[in-house]
Amino acid sequence: MKACPDRAAALALLRKYNGEPFHIQHALTVEGTMRWYANELGHGEDADFWAAVGLLHDVDFEKWPEEHCKKAPELLAEIGCSEEFIHAVCSHGYGICCDVEPTQEMEKVLFAADELTGLIGAAARMRPSKSVSDMEVSSLKKKFKDKKFAAGCSRDIIKEGAERLGWTLEELMEKTILAMRSCEERINAEMAAL
Q1: Which domain holds residue 124?
Q2: 2 lies in some domain
Q3: Which of 23, 49, 141, 150 has a Cα-to-Cα distance from 2 of 20 to 30 A?
Q4: Which DSSP symbol is given to 174?
Q5: Which long-range contacts (CB under 8 A, 24 or more apart) does 76-85 make?
Q6: Mean pLDDT over residues 54-69, rounded?
């Protein structure tokens, strides 16, 4: 099992540097998505590690957007995160804001799923249900093709992420929708309690 901070410490660090509900919700979403992927891809023994990396992947973004993935190591050191953990967190910014390449399967999943959860979340908010529970890949693909929809979510990064994993875009979309379904209720409850 890979060493990672316990969830209480990770959440406290996230809250220390992030106050925007949008950023907290994104962190919780990527946390739950990464936990699902760890179990789905046969890394269940490291699910806590995958989830903690997901929770803290944007720890520096709200306060230091210009130094995203460059400030993170210093913040993560506050709770004693390992070099491996810090590398994993920073790798999702590869080619965007840093040169830490995603090499491990978990890092490639984070790189691919991070951006896609934003697009799926935006698409879910447009649905009558306001949920991913009834979302189909076909409707997500339509949103993906509409460049004006959730314009801040880079389609190129999502495509590159799928390629790095050796998956089709549809496969990445389908898995990430399922991953987000697995944690949606828990996140809604946690956000309501904030």
Answers
A1: 7-193
A2: no
A3: 23
A4: H
A5: 76/13, 78/13, 79/5, 79/9, 79/10, 79/12, 79/13, 80/5, 81/4, 81/5, 81/56, 82/2, 82/3, 82/4, 84/2, 84/3, 85/2, 85/3, 85/4, 85/5, 85/49, 85/52, 85/53
A6: 96
Smallest CA-to-CA distance from 72 within 98, 109, 104 is with 98
Encode pLDDT of 77-116 as tens digits: 999 999 999 999 999 999 999 999 999 999 999 999 999 9
Distance CA 131, CA 124 (A): 5
Q: Nearest Cα to 179, choosing from 34, 52, 41?
A: 34
**Could you read off the pLDDT of 130-150 as tens digits, one per residue?**
999 999 999 999 999 999 999
Domain total for the chain?
1
CA distances to 48, 53, 65, 75, 174 from 167, rounded to whole Å, are 24, 22, 30, 33, 11
CB–CB of 23/61 below 8 Å?
A: yes
Residue 136 covered by a domain: yes
Could you tell me which residues are beta bridge partners of residue 98?
94
Q: Which CA distances in Å does 180 have to 40, 66, 71?
A: 13, 28, 28
Q: Is 1 inside any structural domain?
A: no
Tell me the C-alpha distance between 53 and 59, whole Å. 10
What is the rounded distance in angstroms from the CA atom of residue 185 to the CA atom of residue 190?
Answer: 9
The torsion defined by the Cα of 137, 103, 35 and 158, in degrees rounded to 10, comes to -20
